[in-house]
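SECTION: protein entry
WANTED: fold as tokens:
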Amino acid sequence: MSRRELTWRIVMAAAAGVCLVLSVVLVLAAADVVGWERTLRSGDVRYRASAGDDTLWERNALLPVDIGRGLLAVDDDIAFRKALRSLRLAHLDDPLASVSDPEIALSRNAAQVRLEAVAAGKDDRIRRSRAAGLLGVLGLARFITETEQREALISSTVASLRQAIALDPSNDEAKLDLELAFQSGRGYQLTEGSGGANPTPGGTGSKGAGAGQPGSGY
């Protein structure tokens, strides 16, 4: 065998090895994509049954670098789902619950941090509007029980609801909740004349907003 033939065989063997590795990577990447789609769907189903599972919307990738997660760009979806989960665990239907249950207070803090991240992100405006509106709902719930810095709390609540309306002028729940915030903030010099949106009554309000189901409105 000549030197040239030996070199050619080595090159061909190396190329075949590279092709084999690439084929394996592509197969595993495709499996990760499918796996993430199933993880989101199954997580949504489990969330509706019980929001207490810490493993919702989590999975271990087959590849060291989670190519499937990047290809599907699911980080924003997961972030919003986890924000809704924290809000559901916050039990906003019982505003006084946080006084007697530290876990609920922690869930409300977690919900606020997660919703703030979504509202301030670069995700689609509708989802950011929903997150900002839910921040307003959370602020209204906190206003019932918190006795300190109430002026700052109601001001931040109004700001969140105005942001929700600015991002999505059709967000009628945020408009109604903004009216409620103005009513709650009477005595703190919060008026429509101070700037921002001019809300109009209407919509269904935010009753049960914290119980929104992942999988809809994303």
Notes: The CA atoms of residues 182 and 191 lie 7 Å apart. The radius of gyration is 24 Å. The chain has two domains: 1-72, 74-218. Residues 1-72 form one domain.
